[in-house]
Design goal:
- This protein has one domain: Rossmann fold (3-Layer(aba) Sandwich).
- The protein is 35% helix and 16% strand.
- It has 13 helices and eleven strands.
- It has an eight-stranded mixed β-sheet, with helices on both faces. Strands 3-10-11 form a three-stranded antiparallel β-sheet.
- Strand 8, helix 10 and strand 9 form a beta-alpha-beta unit.
- Helix 6 crosses helix 9.
- The two termini are 27 Å apart.
- It holds the Pfam family Abhydrolase_6.
């Protein structure tokens, strides 16, 4: 109950900073524009049709993350919880070159189940303010995540990583084991040896590749590969969701920096993972073969494995109910007896809270807001 005692001050908060995050304003903040979207999002957000993406986008904010001994902080984009409780928070990462909007369909289900859920943009991707062009190599991404965790999450977390996000999660868990209670690794891309020969590219060619990476034809092809059988209109809309962060002015610089730095190589780290892990693979993943998930399951010292039937590379988008249930069950298995006491923030501007003593009560309170 130590964590619960730690959270009690939230009941008398007079500012959102005391909740463990800040609703930031000004150049890096959460000033709302048309449609209730944060003003720092690209204006193209207005053209997104997916209601789940629009709803989650309205909740994205930037929180301050101090990097090293510099006086400058990075205003870092994420979706913060509406529910706080005394169990391990669930922190959701995303795939390579993506954003927290990946979790648009699954995130509400995790909250409805009573979990304290954070959806965080990895440094260099997503919607953080990178105007000062910080380094975006693997070490910088790791340190940024640690500082965000230390400043805002503050308790050992269940770290969820899909695709390359699984490599980010493994790298982080090995280097900062005190911050990670357990891992959920979804269609994990963890056996590539970094960005390979891309590290040798001349910068002009690297920028040309980055420009190609965000192009509509490449993004459209990727969506067709990941989501087989989607109607054309939805494929286009989901493509626009997936490339929205690429429209920020620093995206190319951050992408090239990561590309030339060597990326992630966690092959030797896998057997060093001490935390319990849930490995999830999809039956019809065309990006990462299930044989790699089976290999990962066998090499992790303490892991269980689950398969999502009739699903492609992004089950948290394609089958959010199934993925959410797997995460909820795993989180519950990591918790204490029964469901945790929960605090539901139903109005972030006034910090009004509900307190529920059971999972059912906190879930009901969520549904009534």
């Amino acid at each position: 109950m130590v964590a619960l005692a730690f959270r009690f001050p939230v009941l008398r908060c007079s500012s959102s900073e005391e909740l463990g995050f800040r609703l930031s304003g000004g150049r890096g903040g959460c000033v709302r524009g048309d449609g209730g979207f944060p003003s720092f999002l690209p204006k193209e957000i207005q053209h997104i049709r997916d209601p789940s993406a629009r709803t989650l986008a309205q909740r994205i904010q930037r929180v301050p993350v101090q990097m090293g001994y510099s006086e400058n902080c990075i205003m870092s984009s994420c979706v913060t919880p509406t529910i706080y409780n005394d169990s391990n928070p669930v922190v959701l990462l995303h795939c390579f070159d993506s954003s927290c909007l990946e979790w648009r369909s699954a995130y509400p289900l995790l909250e409805k189940a009573g979990l304290e859920a954070w959806a965080i943009d990895i440094l260099g991707w997503g919607f953080s303010d990178l105007e000062r062009r910080p380094s975006c190599n693997a070490v910088s991404k790791r340190n940024h995540l640690y500082q965000l965790w230390k400043s805002h999450v503050k308790r050992p977390m269940i770290l969820v990583g899909p695709s390359l996000g699984a490599a980010v999660a493994i790298d982080f868990a090995v280097n900062f084991p005190e911050a990670v209670d357990s891992l959920v690794l979804i269609n994990a891309s963890v056996y590539a040896e970094g960005t390979g020969n891309m590290t040798k590219l001349p910068k002009p060619m690297a920028y040309a590749m980055a420009s190609l990476l965000k192009s509509v034809p490449i993004r459209f092809y990727a969506k067709k590969l990941v989501f087989d059988g989607l109607p054309l209109s939805r494929t286009i809309d989901w493509m626009n969701v997936g490339r929205l962060h690429c429209l920020l002015p620093w995206w190319e610089d951050a992408t090239v920096d990561f590309m030339l730095s060597g990326g992630y190589n966690v092959i030797e780290d896998i057997k060093q993972v001490k935390q319990k892990a849930l490995v999830i693979c999809s039956e019809h993943d065309k990006i990462v073969s299930s044989k790699f998930s089976k290999r990962l399951h066998s090499e992790l010292p303490n892991a269980v494995m689950q398969k999502v039937a009739e699903c492609g590379h992004l089950p948290h988008v394609e089958k959010p109910d199934a993925i959410s249930q797997l995460i909820v069950d795993f989180a519950r298995s990591r918790g204490c007896n029964g469901w945790p006491v929960s605090y539901l923030v139903d109005d972030l501007s006034s910090n009004k809270l509900h307190m529920g003593t059971t999972f059912k009560e906190s879930s009901k309170a969520y549904e009534e807001t």
